[in-house]
Design the sequence.
């Protein structure tokens, strides 16, 4: 009886873990798209192309190759000159007020949309490990 209870607890923790802690990529992207549509689309547009000379693209952006910097830009905002696909942008993106889980979701969305592909899922823990000084 005791061991049955033990197994039930293990199974429960396993299901909880899969559903709520390690959100699968698909689910994270669905939630990430909602965040994108609410917070990012007005500048980076539906097709992720941004606006030349003003808001840099996310589709095929070489900036996204540096995952830590990508997370940092969304977590703390970004300003000053940056290079994206050989073009310079020198503007300001404010911090959008998102929490770490929301940032993980929106990063999973942008890393896997418009032809972008990233093998590894970005977790909330990864986002929380990024600080301002990298
Ligand atoms: C008000 C317009 C605006 C909004 C809203 C906005 N951005 Fe940006 N974003 C910018 C600008 C401008 C830059 C470049 C800043 C600079 O020149 O330093 C940028 C840069 C970036 C970069 C790095 C450069 C690149 O293109 O790869 C990423 C990643 C990014 N934004 C993602 C997001 C995400 C995700 C959201 C929504 C949570 C968002 N942005 C919301 C304007 C915006």
Sequence:
């Amino acid at each position: 009886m005791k061991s049955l209870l033990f197994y039930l607890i293990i199974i429960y923790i396993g299901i909880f873990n899969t559903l709520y802690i390690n959100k699968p990529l698909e689910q994270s992207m669905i939630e990430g798209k909602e965040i994108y549509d609410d917070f990012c689309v007005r500048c980076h547009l539906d097709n992720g192309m941004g606006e030349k000379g003003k808001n840099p693209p996310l589709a095929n952006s070489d900036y996204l190759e540096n995952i830590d910097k990508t997370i940092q830009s969304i977590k703390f905002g970004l300003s000053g000159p940056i290079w994206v696909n050989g073009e310079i942008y020198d503007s300001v993106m404010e911090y959008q007020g998102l929490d770490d889980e929301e940032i993980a979701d929106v990063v999973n969305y942008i890393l896997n949309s418009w032809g972008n592909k990233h093998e590894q899922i970005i977790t909330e823990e990864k986002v929380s490990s990024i600080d301002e000084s990298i």
Notes: The mean pLDDT is 92.
